[in-house]
Amino acid sequence: MMSQRGNLTGNPRQVRDLAAELHSLVQQWNLQHLSGVQLLKSMTAHIRFNVDDIVVCMETVTRQLKLIAELESLRRSNNSPMFLTWPAIKFGDVTSCVSEAYRMECKVKKHVKENIAHSKSKEALMFLMAAWVHQCYIEPEVEVGLEALLHETGLR
User: Fold this and answer.
1) Distance, CA of 106 to CA of 114 (rounded, Å)
2) Interior CA angle at 104 toward 102 and 108, to 5°?
3) Domain ranges of the chain
4) Quick check: 73 and 89 in contact, CB under 8 A?
5) What 8-state DSSP symbol labels residue 118?
6) pLDDT in tens, 49-105
7) Which one, of 131, 137, 75, 153, lies nearest residue 101 by Cα?
8) Closest C-alpha among 133, 132, 136 to residue 112
9) Dist. CA 49–CA 12, nearest whole Å
């Protein structure tokens, strides 16, 4: 048997080229595999603390602030400010607005998580990615309200 080296032609050339292509494809596969492993590790790390849990905590904060507002209204009849300018009821109203926005955004995130693996086109993947990134329910008014809350309470 003679080893084939140098400038090959015909079938030996095709066999060597195809072997090199197969090797290249296996290397590409391995890179994608490792990338997928990292993605899955990241996803499982984030599943441990669910966005639902955060929203539930936000709703609890809202309920607590509304209860404080009720107590304050019984205690103070003139609706005077608790800190700088806001009466107690304003804190509950703002946190309600914030938690509602995040509750709606949570629904979007759950939809993305449930459907991203089933997307059949690049366009569908891009749509789901955009839905995750843009957070359409977290409007500027929500961010302004939160920032005002922090200023009002002296946290900023």
Assistant:
1) 12
2) 105
3) 11-35+44-106+139-153
4) yes
5) G
6) 578 889 999 999 999 999 999 988 888 777 788 899 999 899 999 999 999 999 999
7) 137
8) 132
9) 57
